[in-house]
Amino acid sequence: MGVTAYSNTSKNKVLNIPLDKIKKYGAVSKQVAGLMAENVRLLTKSDIGIGISGIAGPGGCTKKKPVGLVYIALSTKNKTICKEYRFLGQRDIIKYKATQAALDMIRLH
Questions:
Q1: Which H or E element spans position 84?
Q2: Distance between CA atoms of 71 and 25, rounded to whole angstroms?
Q3: In the chain, what are the domain boundaries?
Q4: Best label site of 29, 36, 51, 78, fewest CB within 10 Å?
Q5: Which pLDDT tens digit goes with each residue over 58-107?
Q6: What is the per-residue pLDDT across 23-63, written as a single tens digit (0 to 9) for each?
Q7: Is domain 8-108 in CATH 3.90.950.20, yes or no?
Q8: Is 55 in contact with 66 (CB distance < 8 Å)?
Q9: Can you tell me the distance from the alpha carbon of 35 to that of 42, in angstroms, rounded to the nearest whole number?
Q10: Are 97 and 36 in contact (CB under 8 A)?
Q11: What's 46's DSSP letter?
């Protein structure tokens, strides 16, 4: 199952990410990406869940969270890992690099 939970509301309503966690850490954070991966795995009763949260641009960035910042989490029943990436390029390139990094995490798992 794939879920595109772009808004904080959809992260909360579809993936059960607590709004207080989003407010505390930010939608683009290691913590939220990890919860996304865990909750999609639980929701679908899958062996693996992937959560990707990032800033692909062109806007939406800050000094602390620049365009290209992406967190990718992989969740299994035993653990959840999350990696931080800083991709360069335009929006479509950043999105492509994020998907390839997520697939590579699954491959290496």
A1: strand 80-86
A2: 12
A3: 8-108
A4: 78
A5: 998 899 999 999 999 999 999 999 999 999 999 999 999 999 999 999 99
A6: 999 999 999 999 999 999 999 999 999 999 999 999 988 99
A7: yes
A8: yes
A9: 10
A10: no
A11: -
